[in-house]
Amino acid sequence: MARVAFIMDKLMHKMGLHGKSFIPLVMGFGCNVPAIMSTRIIESKSSRLITILINPFISCSARIPIYVLLVGAFFPTHGAWIFVGLYLLGVLVAVLTARMLRKFWFKEDETPFVMELPPYRIPTMRATMRNMWSKAEQYLKKMGGLILVASIIIWALSYFPHYTSADVPEDFRTEALSEMPASTLESQTPEEINELITTEYQQSHSILGHVGKFVEPVVRPMEFGWKTCVSLIAGSAAKEVVVSTLGVLYVGDDDADALSQRLRTHSKITGEAPFTQASALAFMVFVLLYFPCIATLSAITRETGSWKYTLFTILYNTGIAWILAFITYHIAGLFC
I want to staple 16 with a disulfide (CB 3.0 to 4.6 A). Which of 102, 147, 232, 309 is the partner? Predict the structure, then answer.
């Protein structure tokens, strides 16, 4: 990595960065948190800050489950191209942001490249296994801890306040029946139709439903429903939580196959599918670029020593995500 940083120094300077910035950016494809912490190796303060601010645009591994879910459901024959396109888009936005920050915010960096090139060593099996176990242990703790707790919280917020069939107002029931496709009315028994209406009322009037509906108008131009909004908000805990949140809201559990099928299946009440190919592509672009998880925001605050950079990351990244998702949706709509 040290030799790669030395080789990439000239190219990185054209981007307004330092050769050592290459190492944190590559690490960002794994996780943005250690990548941001590794910027401590950069002596230049301006290059270090720019590297920190653009690192969240690098697609971390936590976003992969979201890509896999939507690519498998809507683009099974072009999955490789979608994946490559998303990664390249993140890199492109990072490069353009770096050049913009260097031009308008930070002065030109003239710090010379000085870096020790350590000798090559053959890794030992003991060191390799120890590092592998350490990283696997961290991931398992994250999966079994943060994501599990977040999923339970999401479920609780979608369950309370709890409503029964008797609590459903007559006007809501009448409206739901009027919007229900004829095929559903013909194929379902009255009891099953009543259960569908009760479930829809429960989800839309729960605490989670109110939060999602409050945010929904902002992303409605990309055809994101309130359930999609909730999953994006839940992703602030960890990006993997987006998938589990969609699972809780759409199928009631974490069955990936059932969720994949449900996302492209038309609702028995509204007659509309949660996603189309265009909205799924826009959603992946939004997930790629919008504000990072809480752990990354915490790392940015800690490494920069200022909340203003964290606030900039939240507002700027989300704004860029909305603009590019909006463009993606409308361009994809011409072909899908």
Answer: 102
Query: 10-47 burial string, b = 16+ CB within 10 Å, else e?
Result: eebbebbbbbbbbbbbbbbeebbbebbbbbeebebebb
Q: What's the full length of the chain, in residues?
A: 336
* pTM for the model: 0.82
Rounded to whole angstroms, how far apart are CA atoms 162 and 259?
A: 23
H-type alpha helices, 145-239: 148-159, 170-179, 182-187, 190-204, 207-219, 226-234
Q: Which two tokens stand for residue 285?
A: 């672009």
The tens place of each residue's pLDDT in the chain, 336 residues long, gives: 777 877 888 888 888 787 888 889 999 998 898 899 889 888 888 889 999 999 999 999 989 999 999 999 999 888 899 999 999 999 999 999 999 998 888 776 656 666 677 788 888 899 889 988 887 787 667 656 666 776 678 778 878 888 888 898 988 888 888 877 777 778 888 888 888 888 888 878 888 888 888 988 999 899 898 889 888 888 887 888 888 888 877 876 666 788 888 888 887 777 788 899 999 999 999 999 999 988 888 889 989 988 999 999 999 999 999 999 999 999 998 886
Angle 79-104/45-54 helices, nearest 10 degrees? 150
Q: Which amino acid does the sequence have at 294?
A: I
Q: Cβ neighbours of residue 93 under 8 Å, at least 6 residues apart?
A: 57, 289, 320, 324
Assess contact for 325 and 285: CB atoms under 8 A.
yes
